[in-house]
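Colleagues,

For the teaching module next term, I've prepared a clean inverse folding example: a structure given as tokens, and then the sequence designed for it. I'd like students to try predicting residues themselves before seeing the answer, so please don't circulate the second half yet.
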């Protein structure tokens, strides 16, 4: 925009074609990660009412997102879209933040109630809680920044800058959640071996340097409780 329409400030009042495409594509890109996290909540809680409410929020957010995108394509004028459809944009922000926050809080609460007196299991659950909170905060923080800028400064278009990277935040949070499952499956059976001191124990490598040492940890009583040797959360996270 700063190259092709340089010297023509009046052109900035119209949505460029690239922004129109972004408005439409962001809707399904945001819905897919939210659906995945809601499905994960269902696998953990089996609470139909909670999952149904979160699904309704995600569907409403998707619908209002499409409404704003289609309206922007037809009207083109940014100021007109903001003035006439401010309620729709606000509803989109509120439902999105509410959905992400409820899912993150619910997953965190469920995982905390599943902590056991086994140190390794509790350590895995703490890591799962950390990943759940972190991935939730990424999208919630982006949506809140976007909403606050829109409510405080609707006509300087700073909120559109956050909107342009919104789909990237959702897709990266989804990829982080998917990749973390492989990490946790490996961590369930392989953990770093440490001595009783505060420093880890490393054997010497052939070059004389300290090399990381990993040993397989087997806790029969814990495996018996889970019913098998692999992580009880495999397939859920």
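(Answer key — instructors only)
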């Amino acid at each position: 925009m700063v190259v092709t329409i340089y010297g023509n400030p009046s052109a900035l009042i119209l949505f460029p074609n690239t922004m129109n495409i972004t408005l439409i594509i962001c809707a399904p890109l945001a819905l897919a990660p939210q659906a995945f996290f809601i499905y994960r909540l269902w696998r953990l809680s089996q609470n139909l009412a909670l999952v149904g409410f979160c699904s309704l929020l995600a569907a409403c957010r998707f619908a209002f997102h499409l409404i704003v995108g289609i309206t922007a394509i037809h009207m083109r004028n940014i100021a007109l879209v903001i003035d006439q459809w401010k309620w729709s944009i606000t509803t989109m922000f509120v439902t999105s933040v509410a959905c992400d926050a409820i899912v993150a809080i619910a997953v965190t609460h469920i995982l905390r109630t599943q902590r056991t007196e086994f140190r390794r299991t509790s350590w895995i659950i703490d890591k799962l809680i950390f990943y759940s909170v972190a991935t939730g905060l990424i999208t919630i923080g982006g949506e809140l920044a976007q909403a606050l800028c829109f409510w405080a400064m609707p006509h300087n278009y700073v909120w559109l800058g956050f909107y342009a990277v919104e789909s990237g935040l959702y897709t990266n949070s989804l990829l982080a959640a998917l990749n973390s499952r492989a990490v946790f499956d490996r961590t369930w059976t392989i953990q770093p071996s440490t001595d009783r001191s505060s420093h880890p124990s490393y054997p010497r490598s052939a070059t004389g340097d300290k090399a990381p040492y990993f040993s397989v940890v087997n806790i029969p009583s814990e495996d018996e409780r889970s019913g098998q040797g692999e992580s009880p959360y495999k397939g859920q996270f």
